[in-house]
Amino acid sequence: MLRHSIVFLILAIIAAVFGFGGVAETAAPVAQALCVFFASAWIVSILLGRGGSDGRV
Q1: Considering the entire predicted model, what is its pTM?
Q2: Is the sign of the CA dihedral 38, 41, 45, 47 positive or negative?
Q3: Per residue in 12-46, pLDDT tens?
Q4: What is the dihedral of CA 44, 35, 33, 18, to 10 degrees?
Q5: Kind and range of the H or E element at 6?
Q6: Measured at the alpha carbon of residue 32, what is the angle toward residues 49 and 48, in degrees to the nearest 5?
Q7: Residues 6+ apart with CB under 8 A from 37
Q8: Contact, 2 vs 38, CB < 8 A?
Q9: What is the distance, to the nearest Å, from the Cα of residue 20 to the centroid of all Cα atoms in its chain?
Q10: What is the DSSP secondary structure assignment for residue 55, as one 8-state letter?
């Protein structure tokens, strides 16, 4: 899923640069929603103690 959010973000940026309104309007909210989802999942994993290293060297 992280790969999908990166793809949608890149697609939105490229579409914005070239001025493809329909593509940018579709890809930007999807990229934003996926970014919020992954940021939330990251914060939850940090709070639950599963976000860092497991102590092994």
Answers
A1: 0.50
A2: positive
A3: 778 777 776 676 677 778 878 887 888 888 788 77
A4: 180
A5: helix 2-18
A6: 10
A7: 1, 5
A8: yes
A9: 21
A10: S
